Amino acid sequence: MNRDTSTDAVRVNARKTDAFDIFNFKHYIGPNPYLETGALVFDFAVTNNTEARPLEDYVAIISDRYPHLGEETYDSHAQLFARTTSEVGKLDMGLHLHHWSVKPNENFVTIAVQSLHARTTRSVVYCVWDWFEAITQHENFRLEDQIKTIQEIFRKSAYGGPTVYALWRTAYQNGIPTFYLWDEGLVQYGYGKKQVRGIATTFDCDSHLDSDFTTRKDDCKAFLATLGFPVPKGDIVYTLEEARAAAREIGYPVAVKPVVGHKGIGVTADVQSAEEMKYAFSRAVNAIPKDQPIQIIVEKSISGTDFRLLCVNGRFVAATERRPASIVGDGHSTIAELIERENRKPARIDTPTSPLGKIQCDEAMEMYLEEQELSLDSVIESDRIVYLRKVANLSAGGLSIDKTSDVHPDNIILAQDIAQHFHLTCLGIDVIAGDLAKSWKNGDFGIIEINAAPGIYMHLKPAVGESVDVPSHILETFFASEKDARLPIITFNKISVQELQEIIDDVLIRHPEWTIGAVCREGVFVNRSEKNLNKDYNSNVQNLLRNPKLDLLIAEYREDVLEKEGMFYHGSDIIVLDNPTETEMMLARGISDDSTLVIKEGDNISIRAKGLLEQYKLGVAEPFLRVYLKEIPKVA
């Protein structure tokens, strides 16, 4: 049983009226003495300043918000605090943070909760603490407001973009090691020579030339036309007068967009007149970076529905229909009121994992309403649907509908034929079509734009229809299995520089072409070449694992490093423990059937490999090195 205990330690955080105190925060990026994952660890105690209410009172109030927590049992306030923190830490976004632990001490309890972003998790802990204190004081607590604030903290973090997070979560679930490269602003998947680096759906194997080419809409459009693909007729203009002239020649309605751009920024569809052209041209110009010349595309608008076709590694994987934001009249509410009501729906919570964003009110929306002889103050009759935009911009409240299973085979071949011409992992093809179930060869189909860094959340979590697991398609392009992302790793709790060098020499005899990274408290080596030793121990480990030539990692993790920093990686092929402490035994935690564990306790040796256990005593003057050198050829 985990008992609640009071502490006489100096209060760092608790107020005089608080029943509980939390203190001694520490964040680990990877496995640590408390959890096998990255974690925020802190101490929890009862203060005795204010008497805590019975445990069941807290459970009753918390389970009103999280009913499933009321179905579980708790031994203490600390255990309930840890469990609640873990649940709130998912931020109503389904974050993959499920692990937590409670460790009793003499005067306090140490709590660990799985964490990805330190600031976000720390904010969650303080939120839960405030909630517990509000319960103690019989006060109301607006948890939803707190969660919304913390969602924004996570959203602005390196992990919070919907595409980045979706890939990160999928990698975690599939056992693919993943970490953020802060200096480069990139995510690395896999270790050493197995690695792939990228950000969102752009990766280091992608052609930067092809990526840049897709932003030059005029050249890209001409290229597609040369290949015989259906693109709308259009022209490049430089002034408003030229734009109006081009529109007259092409014939209204037209679409207007900047030559250089992406993600639909500055695009205006279905421009019907010279007056509308003024606004559309200005919007396109404002979207052009200051260092770029003014070049605007005016092209024929194609009637139909907006679709995104997504290809991964040259293969079609998903299709999504995108509808502009809309409201449905009720006969007495204004459009402004209907928008406000729509934005309060749970599906529009507007987080990185929500299927719908908030409907945005801006000049473009008001102009489109005016075209329909409406305004924000107009009252809409019951059941009438009013579209608020010409462009189906999902970030402005548009609707995403999965259409993957409806796509005609000819349209799949078209998408794949286009993708084959680009050295890009992911390619989004925006088209206007009457019906994707009909072949593009029958007309009523036009390619509007090619995207080199397409978002994937519209496919993974559409507002309507089935989910398509695009992150798995992407990661399977690089890693058929978890093993394809990993290198052999040998972990020691104690090893000297001399012993490291003997191991390196032994491996290089068998694999002279290999690059071996090794680190202990006394030095960092790549083969026999000594490198700079960073005072932050895990930075040395990361620097080796980010080496794109690395074939094997050898690392020492002693008790002081494990307690201070934890580990950088999870999983070793060989673990060698020399008279390990209780903390150092964590290195053997969760050992797989494919791994080898060698433990020396005094002169006693035990070797566990492939489910078998071997035990014996060291011979007189027999070095421990001789024992584990025999095991290393299993992986190196």
TrEMBL record:
Keywords, ordered alphabetically: ATP-binding, Nucleotide-binding
The name this protein goes by in its record: Cyanophycin synthetase
Domain of life of the source: Bacteria
Pfam name, any one: CPSase_L_D2
TM regions (residue ranges): none
Keyword Nucleotidyltransferase: no
Source species of the chain: Funiculus sociatus GB2-A5
Residue span(s) of domain ATP-grasp: 221-479
PANTHER family in the cross-refs: BETA-CITRYLGLUTAMATE SYNTHASE B-RELATED, RIBOSOMAL PROTEIN S6 MODIFICATION PROTEIN
